[in-house]
UniProtKB/TrEMBL annotation:
Coiled coil: none annotated. The lineage of its organism: Bacteria, Bacillati, Bacillota, Bacilli, Bacillales. Pfam families: Flavin_Reduct. Gene3D superfamilies: Electron Transport, Fmn-binding Protein, Chain A. SMART domains: Flavin_Reduct. Transmembrane segments: none annotated. This is Flavin reductase (DIM6/NTAB) family NADH-FMN oxidoreductase RutF. The keyword Zinc does not apply. Keywords: Oxidoreductase. It comes from Geomicrobium sediminis. PANTHER family: FLAVIN REDUCTASE, FMN REDUCTASE (NADH) RUTF. It comes from the Bacteria. Residues 10-153 form the Flavin reductase like domain.
Length: 155
């Protein structure tokens, strides 16, 4: 099967939108990602899949900690900034949680210690152990979702 057909099939799976963030003590970096999943309750593990061709790949490879931020519908532009569809990435004003950059007012902010890294084709799956989190009131927000290459609303 060709790459286009595979990508079309994967686009049929609706996902939430996250921004993965990290820093190396000097530089802060963020990247929009929809390849995210919860793995385990004990220990509390999550996973994000990162393409080897991205700048974020090397940043996470070298980092011991990272954050995952779940975006809500009002944060579509933030998703676009961190997927290089809109300018502003270099001047973005991050918030801080446990010494890591996080997206202000994200639905959820997860602080993770790198637990494991698993190479899988042209991506690496970064498994993080959640060490802290912050949740915005879920009854007042709707998640930002992605389906068939476009942002969508649940209602």
């Amino acid at each position: 099967m060709d790459d286009y057909l595979f990508r079309r099939a994967m686009a049929k799976f609706t996902t939430g939108i996250t921004v993965v963030t990290t820093e190396n003590g000097v530089e802060t970096h963020g990247m929009t990602a929809n390849a995210f999943m919860s793995i385990s309750l004990e220990p509390k593990l999550i996973a994000v899949s990162i393409d080897h061709r991205t700048t974020m790949f090397q940043k996470l490879k070298d980092a011991n900690k990272f954050a995952v931020n779940f975006l809500d519908q009002s944060q579509e532009d933030i998703s676009k900034i961190f997927s290089k569809q809109l300018p502003g990435k270099e001047n973005f004003a991050f918030a801080d949680l446990d010494g890591l950059p996080v997206i202000p007012d994200a639905m959820v902010q997860l602080i993770c210690s790198t637990y494991n890294k698993v190479e899988a084709g042209d991506h690496t799956i970064f498994i993080g152990e959640v060490t802290n989190l912050n949740i915005k009131d879920p009854e007042k927000i709707d998640p930002l979702v992605y389906f068939e290459g476009n942002y969508r609303k649940l209602n």
